[in-house]
Each structure stands twice: as structure tokens, then as C-alpha cells.
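Hey, can you fold this one?
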Amino acid sequence: MAATLAHLLLLSAVPLATAETVLGAYIFHRHGDRTTKSYKPTVLTSLGAEQVYTSGQYYRDQYISSNASAKINGVSSDLAVLSQLQVTAPTDDVLQNSAQVFLQGLYPPTTMATQTLANGTKVNAPLGGYQYIPVNAVSTAASSSNSEDSEWLQAGSGCGNAVVSSNNYFLSEEYVSALDSTKGFYSSLLPVINSTFSADKATFKNAYTIYDYVHVSQIHNASIPASSLLTTETVHQMQTLADKHEFGLAYNASEPVRAIAGSTLAGQVLTFLNSTALSTPSTPKLEIQFGAYATFLSFFGLASLPKVSENFTGIVDYASSIAFELVTNSTSAKPSASELSVRFRFANGTASEANPAQEYPLFGQDQTLLGWADFVKGMQQFAIADTASWCKICGNSTGVCADALGGSDSSGSDPVATAGHSGGMSRAVAGVIGALVTLAVILGLEALVMGLGGLRLVKKAALRRNAVEEVSQTKA
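Sure. Predicted structure:
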């Protein structure tokens, strides 16, 4: 009894663990289900709207509502406060609409929809109290309001060296081997796809477009020609080949510039979380960006996530999302860098109670919760956080880059985002995203445009002469 009492007294002397506080979060999100790119116009479907709306509800329950499981400190629960939110999407109907619907799940109609005026008149807000949350339109060099009508979203990244790197994929042994070995497989699909793809287009070079066409048809078409050919094994092979094709365009360990989308996203995440950590006045607590799946693949490769699972080399499903949470156990109003940590989450497909965003370790680590310094160190291995660095890495020197390089020290400064001594990014790099928008890389590499049969093999000498030729795919 005495020993037991002594043990209880010892336990009572141990302070209880401090509850974790979420200081801010950054979400990158794919659009919902859409119609096929093969028939115009490409639009967000009712299913797609439901997918992103459900995801918005999930993240509301995660970060926003009064009883949220990981409520962001200081964020309004019911009435959207615009200074607390930053939401962006390209000037594209599918992505813009996805962002709008997601926000209605995040902040549903307000209970303050009815107001009584001084004269006693009651006024009901339209749409049942719909909250008008703006989505900042990101204009890129090649996007338009109808860019989803194209086989490939956006005309190009604008990054010359990324163009060359993407061309290199089509010269690789991996690509040429797959092109040759799958000729029979794609020819066998002609009874299913010949209304859209001619025999010479039914090859691995169009692996994603063919898969997209069949995938959308299986979701929405009650009748598909020669549907008996679309066995489970056949569809799985189509998807696996599309995954291989798209990951090859989005990332290459020997040529990091190919993953310019992931590098730019990493720079944006660092900039946002650093501002949140510094408690910069008027800094949003939650940033949400809608974009295309190639950015996911680029970031996955750079962050060594394929080492965790080969699933990170595949095309993410509609309405997939990744989230970066800045957290602390400190009770201080302004925690020090040593008291901050970052957690990475990923939901393949619509995030929901049945499919929650799971924690995964970044940079080959074995822990899912990284200290701020370790997180910054890992991200700065590939993050691009200012215009001059982007221009140097891309080999661009005209347009915006002429101004950026002309006003910077180009004598050897590190072109990758750097961290300040406190463990965060230097203040000099804190506001760099605007110029990256102008360079059409805010939402990623999404590689470079080509027509349905537009890929062609060229000699390396020709590649050097045509470094800006847009031949790599852009995906959504």
C-alpha cells in the first residue's frame, strides 16, 4: 500500500502534457470529377461538386468548427473572416468552380441570414445565407477560362530548363521501352476508343488521355462500345501505364528542374508557414490552393514520399488534397522556432470521415511530426521561394526575369529557398509569390502543351536549339 501511495504521489508531481495548438494550415487541393477532355466544353460535374463540397466539410470539422478536432487557433468558426483566409485557383472553370464549392463546405450558410431593420422589417439573405468568399484567380501565361477543354491544361510552365528536361523523358529508355512494349495493348483497346482515337494515336504517348477518356466514360456512360474488353485487369493496366507516363513527366531524381511545380509549391508553403510562425500582421491562418495533379506528383518525388509507398507515384484521384499543419505545444502567444513543428497529411480522393487525411513522413524521415528546423531544412533542399532563384534554375533571362535578375546578386547566391537563423525563411523571401504567378508556375509544372498526337522524338542537338518548344504535357 505504501509503495502504491508513493507511486501515485510521484505521478501527481508529473505535469500533464500540454494540448497541441494548430497555428495555421496550408491545403493544396485537386478539382472534383469533370467531363472528359475529349469533348468540349469540359465542366465540373454534379459528382465533382459533391466531392469537393464533402472535402470542404471534412476540413471544416478538422480546422474550423468550434469543436474541430484540430481547430486552427484564432480562426472564426461560423462567419468567414476574409483576412484569415487566402484561396487561389487558376483562371479555369473547373478549378475555380471546385474552389467555390469547397468553400461552401468549409463555411456553410451563416445563421445570421435574417436581419431585422430599424423599422422592424425582416430581410432574408439570398441563397439561404450563402457566404461570399472570394477565390483569387491566378492568371498564367497560357491558361484561359476554357483551358480544361484542351487535352492538356495550360500551354507551358514558362521554365526553359524544365521544357528540356521534359523532352528528355521522351528520349529515355524507360519511355521508348514502354512505347514499344505496349503497342499491342493499346491496339486492343481500339474497339472501345476508336470514336475518339485513331490507330496511330492509340499508343503509350497518349497514355493519360486514353485513360482519362475511359475513366470518365466508366463513371458517366451507361453504354460503352465493346465494354466487355474493359476488364478489371485491363483498366488497372491502363491506369498503371498512365501513372508511369505522368510521373515520368513530373519528376526525375537526376533532373530536379523537371519538378518545378513541386519546388514552387514548397516555396509557397514555406513562405506561408513562416509568416504564420512570425505572427505577421494580417497573415491568413489558412491558405487553400486548387491546382492540377502533376503538382502533387512533383512534390511527392521531391519529398521522397515514393520511399514510403509506391502509391505516391500514381495520379491522385479527383478531389485529393495535401495539408501542412504548423503546430505547437507551447502556451506562449508567440512560440519560438524550437517550439514549432509541422505535420504533413494526404487524402487520396475526397477527404471524409471514411477517408481521412493520413499522416505521412517527409524527406525519408521515420517521424510524421517534424520540428520546424528539420522541416525547413528538408524543404529548402528543393524549394524555390523567389523570382530570381526561379529564373536562374529555369535559365530564363527575359520578361519578368530580366527585372528580377537585374536587381539581384547573380554571382552565386543559392537559388533555393533559404532559412533564417531562427529556423524560418528569411524575411527577404517572405513575399515572393506574386512574381511566380506572373511566370505561370504558381500551380506547377503541369508540363508543356501537346496535341493528341503531338509528342515526337528529336535529337538532343535539336532539343538544345529548341529549349522553349512546348512538347511536354500539362495535366489537370
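The first helix runs from residue 2 to 12. Let me know if you want another pass with a different chain boundary.
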